[in-house]
Design goal:
The complex is a heterodimer of chains A (about 250) and B (about 240). With about 250 residues, chain A is mainly alpha-helical. Chain A contains 9 helices and no strands. Chain A has one domain. The chains are: A mainly alpha (about 250), B alpha/beta (about 240).
Chain lengths: ~250, ~240
């Protein structure tokens, strides 16, 4: 029991040390702009454009459900234009960034871990090194930059989609007028609502892509190892995303 | 010259290389033979710094690999071509881009890169395959692209990791001829890791047998073929006991 606990503690310390080492290597790759500068737009398209349909699909249904649940909760006690307030605030502050983040942790994080894991076990990463490339500047930096810059764009469009579908649901299903919905939407709006959600999503994007790369590049074994890495990347990303979500709420919303 | 000096490497406490010492002379092809899992590929990866030794070192033209900083290691890697066991081609890139990738790290114009890629592919008889992707190639073709990628860099040294493993005898012979042709055309120093004795006899100037982490015997092809060492004899004859 004590031996097992000790081994786990040592493993955890090693993992933290390994992650620190990885981030240090990543920082050292920053001056290699000629390599990552060329590859980042490709990753931005993959992370951004290719992920957009999933994120918008989730946001569209979330907006409708939020409007219906708000109306169910408010009926008879709170004026119905508060539906606009609840849809707007919830989409901007929480559900837009977090639901898109969780969906993309599955899509982007898993695909990066699987891709880099396969490259690792088939010696493609070693081959890169022998061709005088640094895997950090060739593989990791473009992905992390793409995640950090494209997640806020995806989340901004998700928030917009959720608000629009919430508004349409209010019009069609709740007999709320556009003026009433907009009145509620503007009622407690602060600019911080917008930047908080987008800033948070940038940190989610950085975390999810970084975890995907770290886990992918530490893959060992064959196909089974790649499968394990993919699962680990999704689990770690989702857990870290929720921890970060609570952290930013604690730091920025108090 | 590449010199392995008392190289020691263990994985999870299990020693793989245990005092591995070998000199590879300029201009010759040295073949390292040995049973599967005895550390032949591990030794090769130390030459380009893909693995770090627990003790000992590899000396390449007077440079101790373990002491090189990142820039110096990159410089060393520019002089060495590495052909991986399963070719390690980049799946998302065409054959042209695979071969051109290393050249793009050098100060060459696009025209020079295209010319070098064409030359390298011609040398491995793959002219016309530029636009194909690794998934569309046979195992033998993938290995030939891997060799083209290494020779396009015009290296001083080429390291071959199990170049004929998994290939049929005819394709293996083609790869062997290719390695000989590469040495003759480009005058590169080669290290070949293999357990394919026919290949070893065809491409090697000298053969070294790795056994229990050390070199058991090293000699010319004729010396190895006539050896009286029971361990080496058993291996080269492929006898079970």
């Amino acid at each position: 029991m004590i031996e097992s606990l000790g081994r786990r503690t040592v493993d955890a310390i090693k993992a933290v040390g390994g992650f620190g080492h990885f981030v240090g290597d990543l920082a050292r790759a920053v001056p290699d702009v000629a390599v990552w500068g060329r590859l980042t737009p490709v990753q931005m398209r993959r992370v951004g454009v290719d992920s957009l349909p999933v994120a918008l699909f989730i946001a569209a249904f979330t907006g409708v459900v939020l409007a219906l649940q708000a109306s169910y909760t408010f009926t008879g006690t709170v004026p119905l234009y508060f539906v606009g307030t609840l849809v707007g605030k919830t989409m901007m502050l929480e559900l837009g960034p977090v639901l898109a983040g969780l969906a993309l942790a599955g899509r982007v994080g898993a695909s990066m871990a699987a891709e880099l894991g396969t490259m690792k076990v088939t010696e493609q990463v070693d081959a890169l090194e022998t061709l005088a490339y640094d895997p950090q500047s060739f593989l990791v930096l473009p992905r992390v930059l793409a995640g950090t810059t494209m997640f806020p764009v995806i989340v901004a469009l998700s928030i917009l989609t959720g608000i629009v579908t919430g508004w349409i649901a209010s019009l069609v299903l709740l007999d709320l007028s556009t003026q009433e919905f907009l009145k509620g939407l503007k009622l407690f709006y602060r600019f911080k609502d917008t930047w908080f959600g987008l800033f948070k999503s940038a940190t989610f994007g950085c975390t999810i892509t970084l975890v995907g790369c770290v886990v992918g590049l530490s893959t060992r074994g064959g196909a089974e190892g790649v499968g394990r890495s993919t699962t680990r990347a999704v689990v770690y990303s989702a857990v870290l995303l929720l921890v970060l979500d609570a952290f930013w709420a604690l730091v920025l919303l108090r | 010259m590449i010199e392995f000096r008392d190289l020691r490497k263990a994985f999870d406490g299990r020693p793989v290389l245990d005092g591995f010492t070998l000199r590879v002379q300029d201009g010759e092809t040295t073949v390292i033979i040995g049973y599967s899992g005895t550390g032949k590929s591990v030794a090769l990866k130390h030459v380009v710094g893909l693995l770090q030794a627990d003790a000992g070192d590899v000396i390449v033209d007077g440079r101790a690999v373990s002491t090189l900083d990142r820039a110096a290691l990159t410089g060393l890697r520019r002089e060495i071509g590495f052909v991986f066991q399963f070719a390690a081609l980049f799946d998302s890139m065409s054959v042209f881009d695979n071969v051109a990738l290393g050249l793009r790290r050098r100060e060459l114009s696009d025209d020079e890169i295209a010319e070098r890629v064409r030359e390298a592919l011609a040398l491995v008889d793959l002219t016309g395959a530029e636009e194909r992707y690794p998934a569309e190639l046979s195992g033998g073709m993938r290995k030939r692209v891997g060799i083209a990628r290494a020779i396009a860099l015009r290296p001083r040294y080429i390291l071959y990791d199990e170049p004929t493993t998994g290939l049929d005898p005819v394709t293996s012979a083609v790869i062997d001829q290719l390695m000989v042709r590469t040495r003759e055309h480009l005058r590169v120093t080669g290290v070949v890791v293999t357990h394919d004795m026919r290949s070893a006899y065809t491409v090697g100037d000298r053969i070294a047998m790795l056994y229990e982490g050390k070199i058991r015997q090293v000699g010319t092809v004729a010396q190895i073929q006539e050896t009286e060492d029971p361990v080496v004899r058993q291996f080269i004859e492929g006898r079970p006991t």
